[in-house]
Amino acid sequence: VQLVESGGGLVQAGGSLRLSCVASGSTFTINVMSWYRQAPGKQRELVASIASGGGSTNYADSVKGRFTISRDNGKNTVYLQMHSLKPEDTAVYYCKAIVIATAKTYWGQGTQVTVSS
Question: What is the Cα–Cα distance from 43 to 37, expressed in whole angstroms?
């Protein structure tokens, strides 16, 4: 499984961005897809996750009500719609895929999101 993120950039506080993560390879084996982020000097943290069927989602408290995760299985893509962005949302955002059958995880290369005040 290979993951490629896109959609990051520079945005003013209060603005919006939509991140995309396109999966290739054995995508039919993916069970859970997630977005993580890592700010300078901080640990990587879970932002949101979504199950393969798309019906079960989970969010970090810091983004609830502002971010929405979704997936289009036909396009092998997971999205992170981000609204009301804050400077503290500035980080490199990573896409992660989990394959339960093999207990393997896969990461994308990351996309930078910078929110100016």
Answer: 8
Residues facing residue 51 across a β-bridge: 32
**CB crowding 34-72: b at 16 or more within 10 Å, else e:** bbbbeeeeeeeeebbbbebeeeeeebeeebeeebbbebe
Q: What is the pLDDT of residues 33-74, one digit of tens each?
A: 999 999 999 999 999 999 987 679 999 999 999 999 999 988
User: CA-to-CA distance for 90 and 39, rounded, in angstroms?
Assistant: 6
Question: What spatial distance separates the first Cα and last Cα of the chain, rounded to whole Å?
Answer: 37
